[in-house]
Amino acid sequence: MIPINPLNRLAATSRRKVLASTLLYATSLTVRSSSATGGDSQSARGPAHDDLMASFATTEDGVKIFYQDWGPKTAQPIVFHHGWPLCSDDWDAQMLFFAARGYRVIAHDRRGHGRSSQVSGGHDMDHYAADAAAVIEHLGLSNVIHVGHSTGGGEAARYVARHGKGRVSKLALIGAVPPLMLRTEANPAGLPIETFDGLRQQLAASRARFYFDFASGPFFGFNRPGATPSQAVIWNWWRQAMMGSARAHLDGIKAFSETDFTTDLKNITVPTLVLHGSDDQIVPVADSALLSARLLARSSLKIYDGLPHGLCTTHADIVNADLLAFFSA
């Protein structure tokens, strides 16, 4: 029996690995070449690639906006606008609920947030509303119900007022920032600029720490006596926030705090439901929902006693039931 030299065995194994790698690389080049030269794109790219590409709309300034779109394409659409600094995943409880009831549900990640392009500019309400319009145009939606939470409430209001003519059925604003959060001479009950400067300072110092503390405390009311914090909810909020761009989130503070939506609210003529928690520590109810309801032409107002800013998560069953009643009325 001839002894086998271990070095020869190692060399043979290495040659097989190199050969396998070479074949794999050549195969990938063939697939790429077929796609690039107009070959069978379906076989070259595959269904997974097509699904991924179908999940983005492109804005006029070239920003890729990621969106989720569930349910029958012929059903009435509901478009959800998320809060700062989150993404469309924050609407999971609402999208699953309404998809199960036959609606078509759509939610997008704001520019710089979640899976959308992390661009350096355009982090203001005019661009946010135009980006939402790009998604709606891309999907060809009409007779749309819009739902906005917090910053998303401002985005939804501006979209409906400026882009939604003939496309919008109803609007719901939940814990929303309109008409104006910042204290000014015309809005003396607003929050002082130092409040928002403090948010910017904490974000710049340690975004990860700031977001964890924000979700652990005032956002969901977990800092209140007797509250039972949910670590799963806290970490899911943190996960969504950390997916986005620090630059977009920093500029977003100015967008949600200093934008005046008074004119937008006055120009909205569709039925609008205004929902807010009385213990909202992020967007005080007295200077938001109560004023918005007066400015809207066709508003219904409901204040939830003791509920926090993050009520769409902590009390999804209550919020979903009231939204469903409003949508089907």
Explain what you see.
- By secondary structure, the chain is α/β, with parallel strands linked by helices.
- It folds into 2 domains: 6-48, no CATH class; 55-328, Rossmann fold.
- It is 48% helix and 14% strand.
- The chain contains 13 helices and 8 strands.
- The chain has helices at 6-36, 41-53, 92-99, 125-139, 151-163, 193-205, 207-216, 231-243, 246-258, 262-267, 289-295, 311-314, 316-328; strands at residues 56-58, 64-70, 77-81, 104-108, 144-149, 168-174, 272-277, 299-304.
- Strands 1-2-4-3-5-6-7-8 form an 8-stranded mixed sheet, sandwiched between helices.
- Strand 1 (56-58) and strand 2 (64-70) form a beta hairpin.
- Helix 6 (193-205) crosses helix 7 (207-216) and helix 6 runs antiparallel to helix 9 (246-258).
- The longest helix has 31 residues, at 6-36.
- The N and C termini lie far apart (89 Å).
- Mean pLDDT is 89; it is low at 1-53.
Comma- or semicolon-separated keywords:
329 residues, alpha/beta, Rossmann fold, eight-stranded mixed β-sheet, globular
What is the topology?
Layout lengths: L5 H31 L4 H13 L2 E3 L5 E7 L6 E5 L10 H8 L4 E5 L16 H15 L4 E6 L1 H13 L4 E7 L18 H13 L1 H10 L14 H13 L2 H13 L3 H6 L4 E6 L11 H7 L3 E6 L6 H4 L1 H13 L1
Parallel strand pairs: 3-4, 3-5, 5-6, 6-7, 7-8
Antiparallel strand pairs: 1-2, 2-4
Helix pairs in contact: 4-5, 6-7, 6-9, 7-8
